[in-house]
Amino acid sequence: MGKSIVFLDIDGTILNTKGEIPKATKEAVRALRDNGHYVAIATGRAPFMFEEIRNELEIDSFVCYNGQYVVFEGEVIHRNPIERQHLLRLYDEASEKEHAMVFMGDTIMKASETDNGFIRDSLASLGFTYPEIDKDYFHHEPIYQALLFCEEEEEAAYSAHHEHVRFIRWHPLSCDVLPGDGSKKIGVMKLLKAANISVQAAYACGDGLNDLEMIAFAGTGIVMGNAVPELKELADIQTAHVDEDGLALGLKKAGLI
C-alpha cells in the first residue's frame, strides 16, 4: 500500500456546491496517487449513488452508508445493516406522525409513500429522482441506512426513545438513520485493517456532521472551510471553501501533494 491513506467525503468535499468535481480536485487526487498515497472515499451516500464519481476519480475502495458498507479494492469487506425490529418500530412511529421514509439496500432504495415533497426536495438536492414506492422493502432486504423525512425540531422526539439507531441530519428536511453503533469511523477502521495502514498514516477530509467521528479518529483531520462549526473544532488542518478549491489546498497544507 501507499505511504498513507486519504479518505475523502463526497458532498461539500469532493463535490462543490454545484455538484461538480472541480478540476483542482481531479488533479489533486491524481497527484495523491502519483505520490504513492492510497485514496478512498468515505460518504453517507449509497454505493449506487456515486459510481460515476468513483469511476471518474479511479477509486476502488470506499466507506459508504456512513460506515455500514465497506469495499476494499472492489470487494465488500464489511456490512452492518440496521436490525429489522428497530426499523419496524421507527417506521410505525413515522407512519403515525405522517413522516415519510426511504429504505436503502445494496443496490436500490425504496420510498414508503408516493409524491412526498420532503423526499422529492431532499433527494433533488443531491441530483436524484424520486424512488419507487415499497413500504415493505425493509421486511425482506438488508437495510444499511434509512432516511427519515422531518424537520429538525421534530427529530428530537425520535432520538429520545429509539436508542438502537442514530439520527444524523444532512438536510433541513431529512436525516440519516444508522445502526446505533454505526459511524464513518467504524468503516474507516475496517478499511485500514484491510489495507494494513496505521491510523497515524490516515488523513480524513470532510465537512458535515456525519464526519465528526472520522475526523476525530484519523491521524490528521482536514476540514473544509464550508464545514459545520462542530467539525471545525476538531480540525488539525482547516482549508478553504469547497468552491475555492478547498480540498486541493488542504491536501497541499498537509504536505501530501
Automatic annotation (TrEMBL):
<dbReference type="InterPro" id="IPR000150">
    <property type="entry name" value="Cof"/>
</dbReference>
<dbReference type="Pfam" id="PF08282">
    <property type="entry name" value="Hydrolase_3"/>
</dbReference>
<dbReference type="InterPro" id="IPR036412">
    <property type="entry name" value="HAD-like_sf"/>
</dbReference>
<dbReference type="GO" id="GO:0000287">
    <property type="term" value="F:magnesium ion binding"/>
</dbReference>
<dbReference type="GO" id="GO:0016791">
    <property type="term" value="F:phosphatase activity"/>
</dbReference>
<dbReference type="InterPro" id="IPR023214">
    <property type="entry name" value="HAD_sf"/>
</dbReference>
<dbReference type="GO" id="GO:0005829">
    <property type="term" value="C:cytosol"/>
</dbReference>
<protein>
    <recommendedName>
        <fullName>Cof subfamily of IIB subfamily of haloacid dehalogenase superfamily/HAD-superfamily hydrolase, subfamily IIB</fullName>
    </recommendedName>
</protein>
<dbReference type="InterPro" id="IPR006379">
    <property type="entry name" value="HAD-SF_hydro_IIB"/>
</dbReference>
